[in-house]
Write a structure and sequence with these properties.
With 143 residues, the chain is an alpha/beta fold. The chain has helices spanning 14-23, 37-47, 63-73, 88-97, 109-139, and strands spanning 5-10, 29-34, 51-55, 78-83, 101-104. Helix content is 51%, strand content 19%. The protein has a five-stranded parallel β-sheet with strand order 2-1-3-4-5, sandwiched between helices.
């Protein structure tokens, strides 16, 4: 399973987290579910997931704090945020903090799968682009 795409689901409801995991069972994802921002930060720091599906309204902190932590450390995770509130302000804030996309609950299985595929594609693009930039730097190529 080393080629699996590593996905962290941060959802305070374990039932919903497992539902999302079941939605993704046909795809090649290694899914880990945590229920708090503290657990998410710990996992992101040690395991480096490719994509994080992140609830914005957690019990111990705002989801945006998890995004900012990852951005400050340069960990390279791609974030997709979700909330039941559907607030345009929450969506804009999360996108400004670095989230790639936003899901308003409830969402369909198809919407989740497409959104996460796009996030994994972005992760891969970031890896490839980062590799090219590093190679260009070594060769002295200016971008």
């Amino acid at each position: 399973m080393s080629d699996a795409k590593k996905l962290l689901i941060v959802e305070k409801s374990l039932t919903l987290g497992r539902c999302y995991q079941a939605y993704l069972s046909e795809d090649d994802y290694q899914v880990i579910i945590v229920r708090s921002g503290t657990e998410a930060i710990k996992f992101i720091d040690t395991e480096r997931p490719h994509v994080v599906l992140l609830e914005l309204e957690l019990d111990d902190m705002k989801g945006n704090e998890v995004i900012l932590h990852s951005q400050e450390k340069g960990l390279g995770c791609v974030f997709v945020v979700m909330t039941a509130q559907g607030s345009a302000v929450s969506a804009v804030d999360a996108m400004n903090d670095g989230a790639l996309d936003y899901l308003e609950k409830p969402f369909t299985k198809d919407r989740l799968c497409i959104t996460l595929k796009n996030a994994m594609d972005r992760y891969q693009w970031n890896l490839n682009e980062g590799g090219r930039a590093a190679a260009d730097d070594r060769r002295g190529v200016k971008r």
